[in-house]
Design brief:
mainly alpha, MetI-like fold, 2 domains, about 0% strand, flat
Length: about 300
């Protein structure tokens, strides 16, 4: 609730204090008087700040999102873009967590070469900007190997194979962007739990490093992965804005960028507030599940 309040207040404040009559930069000179009146009524700041903010919030949660600068219904525009962004976010989140999870287990068990390569991969991938990772993948898989299309999107109703090919590189880009941080965090968590006294006692019972990881450290680390799940979803949504523009995908991220560049205040504000709502819901669900599964988290809440 605090996150939504801060984001919504910031968005409304920017709109309230800076919008004014922005027709000179949004609508063309040939626009009709009826369209001018419609736009001014939809973006009127004649009401007070507090009453206007309450109206702004109530309109958002009642799905009364208004129209874009071009006259399209904001709900219809977002509904056409949201499924693709959610597909990219969820699929990249799944693959990045799976990749990090398996490599972390192997690195902690085997150590040595796998542990060092995991560190090198994390450092290199984290140092590269998201758009550069996307461009490198395009050069390798599209230009050189000619396996996947350079850009563009094919609806699954037209061709399932074409659809999978069109989202493969964007999904891989987001996976590479998100995986390094989760690899470092999850590997560190596994090592921390494996070094606890109750874990090292397995060695005294004739076990080895593999037994420590699989039978002692793995289960608590899986509960810890719930927090990574929420962070990964937020990172995937944030990264989708750049990746969708690079690959010319009609998703929510590219829509938000286009709305900002075209100064469509209504569309940009609703899109950003919707993303904040989705991220907040995912974090709440992850916190609840973590409290239900981990008694340590429940005790911390009880003490608080």
């Amino acid at each position: 609730m605090l996150t939504l309040f801060i984001v919504s207040l910031a968005l409304y404040s920017l709109e309230y204090f800076s919008l004014g009559d922005s027709l000179s930069v949004i609508m063309s000179e040939e626009v009709s008087d009826a369209d001018l009146a419609r736009y001014r009524n939809a973006h009127s700041d004649s009401v007070g700040f507090i009453s206007g903010y309450i109206k702004y919030i109530s309109s958002f949660f009642s799905f009364n999102w208004g129209v874009t600068a071009s006259g399209l219904d904001v709900k219809d525009v977002i509904a056409s873009r949201l499924p693709l962004t959610l597909t990219l976010a969820i699929s990249s989140m799944f693959f990045s967590l799976l990749f990090s999870f398996l490599w972390s287990i192997a690195a902690v068990i085997k150590r040595g070469y796998l542990d060092k390569t995991a560190e090198i991969f994390s450092i290199v991938a984290m140092s590269l900007p998201s758009f550069l990772i996307a461009i490198i993948l395009v050069i390798v898989f599209s230009v050189l190997l000619k396996i996947f299309p350079v850009a563009g999107y094919i609806d699954p109703s037209l061709s399932v194979g074409g659809y999978l090919k069109s989202i493969f590189l964007p999904t891989l880009s987001l996976t590479i962007i998100n995986a390094p941080i989760w690899l470092r965090i999850f590997k560190g968590e596994l090592k921390k739990i494996a070094s606890e006294s109750y874990s090292t006692s397995i060695i005294m019972q004739g076990g080895d490093n593999k037994d420590i990881v699989l039978y002692s450290a793995l289960k608590p680390s899986l509960i810890f992965a719930l927090s990574l799940f929420a962070d990964s979803f937020a990172s995937a949504l944030a990264g989708s804005a750049v990746v969708e523009k690079v690959f010319a995908l009609p998703g929510l991220g590219s829509l938000m960028v286009s709305a900002a560049l075209s100064r469509d205040v209504q569309l940009a504000g609703v899109t950003m507030l919707l993303i904040a709502l989705m991220v907040s819901v995912v974090f709440v669900v992850a916190e609840v599940l973590q409290a239900l599964l981990d008694p340590r988290v429940r005790r911390s809440y009880e003490k608080a």
